[in-house]
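seq:
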Amino acid sequence: MSTFVFTTLTNNPDSAQYESACLGVSPSTKLTDLDIGKCVKVQASGCSYVLCATTNEIEGILVSTEAETYNSGYAFGTIQRRGRFEATVGTNQSSTLDVGELVVADTQAAINTAGGAKVITGTPSTFKWRCIRVVSGTGVAGDTVLIERV
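struct:
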């Protein structure tokens, strides 16, 4: 008998809601290819996406960067704002992250350092993502989970 499990969606790109945008804190602090897969939010100035800090709501996941720059030197790339994405349970998770729980960003790896999305349980009010599957382990720090925007 076959087994069904939730996976990332690849059949309908519209459901992922991709958005192109400037990336980074400033022209001298740009997001790069090493930042792909990390949780991002809109910078307070509203001109670019930056990495989420611990407990920030996840506005999207960085999925690509481009060679061009805009707005006097900002990096440019694409954010996935909806759909599903694999993430790692962050080190600030104090209990098991269970299927159905809402998540927020945990501390992301430093800019221009590989690391992927890090999440912990939380109470987002605007940008809600939830765990729909524990991919590896039991949902503790370091385990892989599948998150989905709701």
